[in-house]
Specification:
Strand content of chain B: 15-25%
CATH topology of chain A: Ammonium transporter fold
Structural class of chain B: alpha/beta
Strand order of the largest sheet of chain B: 1-14-13-17-15-16
Number of helices of chain B: 14
Radius of gyration of chain A: 20 Å
Helix content of chain A: 55-70%
Oligomer: heterodimer
Number of helices of chain A: 14
Distance between the termini of chain A: 51 Å
CATH topology of the largest domain in chain B: Rossmann fold
Distance between the termini of chain B: 38 Å
CATH class of chain A: Mainly Alpha
Number of strands of chain A: 0
CATH architecture of chain A: Orthogonal Bundle
Radius of gyration of chain B: 22 Å
């Protein structure tokens, strides 16, 4: 007697899996990783390695203890590790990087149910926690070893925020040869990665474009140096890689645009009028919290639906 | 506004395969229901001798269909059988005498008005041959003919593998035209649109000939994007008309009819031979030589594949219809039905169902739903038993095309849940009606 499988349609499936989406994100982050090693030296590779390893390990251990399916093979912990590392200064003590990674995975991601269930971006939230807990070390900017100019202890953005004139030119900003977090200084590498994500359709243009253009428009309206605002700080990394995190951003096109604009506005508020030099992390976290509401408000009206689908 | 959809492999391997008749099987199993609606009322009993085209079960009620013998021979028994859609209905098992003698009373129908036309369509036993199996006469029986502005002929054939509609367009062009002429004459329609996906250039060329011949016929080339053949998608893409929730196409002045159904009507008007055989595409990874065949209705799948060549390996899954919406059959003894346009044999690798992982909220299901539904939210509402949310999410609009499940990187059972959610919502709405 032959044995036939009987299942409900469809019987065909797409090739995309969570794992290969995450792999694409990792590939997209490689240019920034290479740039960070060139700019800040081998220690950046060490920090990245430690963060990634700790993220994977804490996810593994947590899933094991809570007797759930192990999810490390979906590679999302690797992405969190990389992004967290990219948000740390090269001088960060290793033990602090470890605490940050464990916090990102266990507190922000796993306690809420793991992948897809967390309401806040793990890397962003862990960075904010570290910024509060280890403020000194988190803002100890070391300058590129081959830097001619040394603005004492301030990133270009911090310098601008303190009203200091900075002689970091656009090209330096674009190539990332200046102080800042590991992965966020080299605009070129981030844009390359972002383009890769767009081509591979891992992300859509909505969030990055809305986020970046809001910052550009507001900087222009406030009379600030627009290009300087775009290229400095963590804006590009955040707009392409962190604000676009699936779990914590809306999934409708208009939802994404509102989310991006919101991130941009909060970033500008903090940069120009807040007491902190940089605000992208806070802007993303605040918008993460609003995500469920934005998703609901921007629900599309189905084709031919009698009422609205609200 | 552009409707979303998915790019899927076409696998139209059999587009050039001219359908050949398979040897007449020894026995056929003819269920009394191969359509949507009430099963037909069986007219024959054990031991009766029947001929090809003889009525063996009569349409019972408004939505039902006549059923005819597909072979000449003897009725072996009438058996209660569970069909592939789960219903338990009587089936006539007929042993063939191999002669394929045509029933004496078969003659072309005599028609002089709309009622005569509808009766002829009813007598022919034709149902929606695109796969849905809705009795055609019930669809065409429109009370006020003035409401019909356009007849959309569904020749999209958007499912992978299937080419039986393509073959109809290439081999039965004249019958399509006859069908169109009949509808034009008896239903007083002046506008016909033939919607074809652009991956079928030869069929498009053939249909363009009809366009040249008749000013009332238009050919609309559709993008190669699944699911162009969904009724609402087709009407929107050809006429830019939106069929409102819970309504039939006639609400916007449209009738949608499958191209093979229409060609059959044209053929029936000429020959008077009812629906007794079907062109079936045989394909899939387990098939040695993909091809189109013509098989008597009721042919067992095992006989079908024997008549069509053979299998490369033991199939792991066998489908009626395409891989996106087809029904997996439980055994090789299942018969070919009126609405079977393909039988797909999948090997172990092709039939493998990927493992489901956690939803990552990527929004792919929302971005690809042709109707802009939110399968992810429907899934959550269904799991939470939140029926009023299901109503707000318009799950009843879902046509079950399967795009959401196809694109989901976590391979979650999204369309499968939509199907369950639709049932739950229907129960809730009828309950609500009851208490009010």
């Amino acid at each position: 007697m032959e044995h036939l499988n009987v299942s409900v349609s469809p019987h065909f499936f797409g090739k995309r899996t969570t794992q290969n989406i995450m792999l694409d994100v990792i590939i997209a982050l490689i240019p920034a990783l290479i740039a960070s090693v060139i700019i800040f030296g081998w220690r950046s590779l060490l920090i990245t390695g430690v963060c990634t390893a700790c993220c994977i390990l804490s996810e593994y251990v947590f899933r094991k203890i809570s007797k759930k399916d192990n999810t490390i093979s979906d590679l999302s912990a690797v992405v969190t590790g990389l992004l967290l590392a990219f948000n740390l200064p090269v001088t960060i003590p290793i033990w602090q990087a470890i605490i940050g990674s464990v916090t990102a995975i266990i507190v922000v991601k796993q306690l809420f149910g793991g992948i897809g269930q967390n309401f806040a971006n793990p890397a962003v939230t862990a960075r904010i926690i570290m910024l509060i807990a280890f403020s000194g070390n988190m803002t100890n900017w070391t300058f590129p070893k081959n830097s001619v100019d040394a603005l004492s202890g301030a990133t270009p953005l911090a310098a601008a925020s303190q009203g200091l004139s900075s002689n970091v030119n656009y090209m330096t900003l674009f190539l990332g040869n200046h102080g800042g977090c590991l992965g966020e200084t080299c605009a070129l590498a981030i844009i390359l990665g972002g383009i890769y994500l767009l081509i591979r359709k891992v992300i859509t243009w909505h969030i990055p474009v809305a986020f970046i253009s809001t910052v550009a428009a507001m900087s222009f309206l406030c009379g600030k140096d627009t290009i300087y605002q775009l290229l400095s700080g963590g804006l590009l990394l955040a707009a392409f890689f962190m604000a676009t995190d699936y779990s914590t951003s809306p999934s409708t096109p208009w939802g994404k645009i509102i989310f991006g604009i919101g991130c941009g506005l909060i970033t500008i508020l903090i940069r120009f009028w807040g007491s902190l030099p940089e605000g992208v992390s806070y802007s993303i976290l605040l918008m993460n919290i609003l995500t469920p509401y934005i998703s609901k408000l921007t629900r599309q009206k189905p084709l031919g639906a009698a009422g609205g689908a609200k | 506004m552009k409707l979303h959809g998915i790019k899927i492999p076409h696998f139209k391997n059999t587009a050039d395969s001219v359908p050949q008749r398979i040897p007449i099987p020894q026995t056929v199993t003819i269920p009394t229901s191969m359509h949507i609606g009430k099963p037909a009322e069986i007219l024959v009993k054990r031991g009766d001798s029947v001929k090809v085209g003889q009525l063996i079960a009569r349409a019972d009620g408004f939505i039902s269909s006549n059923i005819h013998s597909s072979v000449s021979g003897t009725v072996q028994k009438i058996e209660q059988t569970v069909t592939s859609n789960g219903a338990k209905i009587p089936c006539a098992i007929i042993e063939s005498d191999g002669k394929q003698e045509l029933y004496e009373n078969i003659k072309p129908p005599f028609i002089n008005d709309f009622d005569g036309f509808i009766n002829a369509v009813k007598d022919s036993g034709v149902v929606g041959l695109g796969g849905a199996g809705f009795p055609s006469f019930a669809k065409l029986k429109i009370d006020d003919l003035a409401r019909i502005e356009t007849v959309v002929i569904n020749a999209a054939e958007c499912e992978p593998y299937i080419t039986s509609d393509t073959r109809t367009m290439l081999d039965k062009t004249d019958y399509i035209y006859k069908g169109i002429s009949a509808v034009k004459k008896y239903m007083n329609v002046k506008d016909f649109v033939i919607g074809i996906e652009k991956n079928k250039p030869s069929a498009i060329a053939k249909m363009k000939e009809l366009e040249q011949k008749d000013e009332h016929i238009r050919v609309h080339v559709l993008p190669s994007m699944y699911p162009q053949g969904g009724e609402k998608v087709l009407v929107y893409n050809t006429l830019k008309k939106i069929i409102p929730q819970g309504c039939l196409p006639i609400e916007v002045g449209v009738i949608v009819i499958n191209v093979t159904t229409l060609a059959f009507i044209g053929e029936y008007l000429e020959t008077g031979i009812p629906l007794v055989e079907k062109c079936v595409t045989i394909d899939g990874s387990a098939v040695k030589e993909p091809k189109n065949v013509i098989a008597p209705i009721g042919t067992h799948i095992s006989d079908l594949i024997e008549g069509a060549g053979s299998l490369k390996c033991e199939p792991a899954k066998v489908l009626y219809g395409g891989p996106m919406m087809g029904i997996a059959v439980p055994s090789m003894n299942e018969p070919v039905l009126k609405n079977t346009n393909a039988v797909i044999f999948m090997d172990k690798k092709e039939a493998a169902v990927p493992k489901t992982t956690a939803c990552i909220n990527c929004g792919a299901c929302i971005a690809h739903c042709p109707f802009r539904l939110e399968p992810r939210s429907i899934f959550l509402a269904y799991k939470a038993g939140n029926v009023s949310d299901l109503e707000k999410l318009c799950v009843d609009l879902c046509m079950e095309c399967g795009c959401c499940s196809y694109v989901c990187p976590a391979h979650r059972p999204l369309v499968q849940t939509n199907k369950l959610a639709k049932i739950k919502l229907r129960e809730y709405l009828s309950y609500k009606k009851e208490i009010n």
